[in-house]
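B., you asked whether I could sanity-check this one before it goes into the benchmark set. Here's the sequence:
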Amino acid sequence: MRIAVTGSIASDQMTSCGRTFAEQFIAECLDKLSLTFSTNEPKVHPGSAAGNLAFGLGSLGLAPLLIGAAGTDVAGRRTIDLRQLLEQSGPLDLVVVSPDDPEAMVCHTRQCVELGIPFVAAPSGQLAHLGRAQVRALLAGPRLLFTNAYESVLIQERSGWTEQQVLGRVGTWVTTHGARGSRIVCANRLPLDVAAVPPREAAEPTGAGDAFRAGFLAAIAWGLGPVDAARLGGAVASVALESAGPQAYTLRGDDLAGRLRCAYGAAAVQPVVASLEHFAHTARTSKASIARASSLTRSSCDPRPSR
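And here's what the prediction gave me:
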């Protein structure tokens, strides 16, 4: 399966204040907050949902096509034409529409529909900035819809559709619930709940959702079903949680297999482990894998995509 990921390409500035927000909030006064936080010096990490997802896919031995605008002149995000990129790079089996300029997200979704390319809707944090027409446009028949628990409610509010109405427009709806795991829902079927894979020691949650989606999509690309995909996504997310920075983790097939066996039992994860054994054979380190990933970026002032 050849996967393309569209979305923003950026860096994350991350800092910490040494305490949780919950420790400094007064529950009865949330409507009139007035706080100052002293933080550590920020650190810059490669980030953005599209970049994080492409990194995770590359770390699992796939060669994703990263499509987005980068550099100091990124105003041309919404003018990237998937048809032109297909002529340059060849056919695609799946396109992930991740957070980006809202018009770019709608444009890429419509182009996938017109070209008959299966696509994934992963609007994530951009949902808060989308209007009703834009949200509905993103739900024009995606093979998969990814949300977290909050976004699963927000997408209903923004679209004006009920959960069942949304399900009638998507193939499979996957919602992550943090430490509670994930839920997989299809129209007219009972939901499937998949437990999370606990990290050994959580360092930073940023990018864990993107890591889950990378694991999920890699499993789908390997021909596995949604439950196996959610289990692999949980294992990849647990590794990401142990690193400071959304692209700072390293994946090893034996480590992922061990986490899966501990979380679900050896028999339950045999199909995933068999795929991971192949991954371990073909990709010795995550850096070697990501080096094989293709990246197409386009400058707003240059009509030709560059590799």
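One thing to flag: The two ends are 20 Å apart (CA to CA). Otherwise nothing jumped out at me.
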